[in-house]
TrEMBL record:
Name the UniProt record assigns to this protein: Stage III sporulation protein AG
Bilayer-crossing regions: 21-40
Keyword check for Transmembrane: yes
UniProt entry keywords in alphabetical sequence: Membrane, Transmembrane, Transmembrane helix
Protein's organism: Candidatus Ruthenibacterium merdavium
Length: 191
């Protein structure tokens, strides 16, 4: 019985596609798909929202995100055991927006050819781009926050080789010198 229903639907579909209005049906389907796609956020819009929220994040929120990421990577180091990480940042980073600058220079000379007045006037304004529903400022550069120091407390830090590997991993991941990384052994519970 299922096979006859499938055959019936296949014949109906074949008949629809063979008619002159097949293009019309496909056009309507395309319009419906475009309409439905507007209901879901686009991946670029998600990236823009993430970038905006990253720019406006507080130092403590950025520290917490970095701490979680560093903790996840340090936990994978052989011998590290249980890990806790604390990161301090010097600043929250900086976003530099593109600007349109117009400079006007005015020079005045007296009758002897000596410069009497030298004036520079300028205007600058931020550049914006249309992101569909609204205008967004055009980002020129994003400077990541500067890491001041990192403390890693873990069970395996009593072993010098584990401590050294963790120090190198943290230094490499964050792009900071090893003297800004402190690795210490975790306190053991006394029974």
């Amino acid at each position: 019985m299922k096979q006859t229903q499938q055959q019936m639907w296949a014949e109906r579909l074949k008949g629809l596609l063979q008619k002159k209005n097949a293009l019309f049906v496909l056009g309507i389907a395309g319009i419906l798909l475009l309409g439905a796609s507007e209901l879901f956020p686009k991946s670029q819009q998600k990236a823009d929202v993430f970038a905006q929220s990253g720019q406006e994040m507080s130092v403590s929120a950025q520290e917490q995100i970095l701490e979680e990421r560093v903790q996840q990577i340090v936990e994978t180091v052989d011998g590290a055991g249980k890990v806790k990480v604390m990161i301090t940042l010097e600043d929250a980073g900086e976003t530099i927006y593109a600007q349109d600058e117009q400079l006007d220079a005015e020079h005045q000379y007296d009758e002897n050819g000596q410069k009497v007045l030298d004036r520079n006037n300028g205007q600058s304004s931020h550049l914006f781009f249309d992101s569909g529903s609204d205008e967004q400022p055009l980002v020129e550069t994003v400077r990541q926050p500067t890491v001041q120091g990192v403390a890693v407390i873990c069970e395996g830090a009593g072993d010098v080789s584990v401590e050294s590997r963790i120090t190198q991993v943290v230094s490499t991941v964050l792009g900071i010198p090893t003297n800004r990384v402190c690795v210490a052994a975790m306190q053991t519970a006394n029974p």
